[in-house]
Amino acid sequence: MGGVIDSPARAGGALVVGAHVADASTERLDELLGELPEDLLRQVFTHSSWSERRSDSYERLAFLGDSVLGLAVSSHLYPRLEADRFGAGRMTKIRGQAVSGAACREVAERLGIPERLRAAAPPGGAREVAAALHTERVLASVLEAAIGACYLNSGYEPTAAAVVQAFEPEIEIALEHPVDFKSTLQELLARRGSRAEYEVARELGPAHRKSFDVVVRAGGEPLGSGHGPSKKHAEQQAAREALERIRDHAEQGPEPR
User: Which residue in the list 66, 106, 128, 248 is annotated as catalytic?
Assistant: First the structure.
């Protein structure tokens, strides 16, 4: 663990994020966060329920940060994985595990995002914060928003380097212990007396370059959806989303609106 890093604090009624203990893996990303202008930093840690305008929340930044995260990890993995052993499908599974909701939550906690959210909450927002801190989806989205904001302020190269450093533990776990999301979901549902059923919802593109949208259901209820260049890949993505939703529901229940 690193030392205590002072997160950006601003007086005069402006945003005060507080201090946290920086993990060595997130030090570079923490530094980039410290360089954000006040308005961008405020948006990173603003839940949609705390603002009259939804556009002032972290959601748009999270959309951008998700893409930056995926590209950064993909670019890091590509030269490391031998072409003869790692095809596109296998590489996609490894990347998917490395940047999954569970992985993002781990990085978010190392970066001190729960403490930052508590400090940024408006008066009377303690209940929403307490609920959000138990929701994987919220912590992952705020982390992605932080990445998106760093990209806007510092550019791609510094942000990508910081992202790869922050996700290095998760990347190594994905390389050493890859997860089969379909098998994991089926085992979970079997314990509940149910089973996963996959349906191709849509086929896109010409015959030589098709892609697929797949929905996974249990007992007729949709649990997740996925998209990919093959049915198997799309099914894995759908299973991964289903597992994350089931985990969110078990931990917290409905996300605060």
Answer: 66
Number of H helices, E strands in the chain: 11, 5
* Rounded Cα–Cα distance for residues 148 and 128 (Å): 23
User: Could you say which of 133, 161, 176 is where a domain stops?
Assistant: 176
Give the containing element (helix H, strand E) for 225.
strand 221-228
Q: Is 240 part of any domain?
A: yes
- Please pick, among 23, 106, 136, 144, the residue that the annotation labels catalytic: 144
Look at residue 76 and tell me if it is in a domain.
yes
3-state secondary structure of 158: helix
Domain interval for residue 93: 4-176
The question of whether 66 is a catalytic residue gets the answer yes
Model-level pTM?
0.69
How many Cα neighbours within 13 Å face the side chain of 167? 34
At 178-226, the pLDDT tens digits run 878 888 899 899 999 999 999 999 999 887 778 899 999 999 999 999 9
Our count of domains for the chain comes to 2
Of 74, 93, 55, the residue nearest 178 (C-alpha)? 93
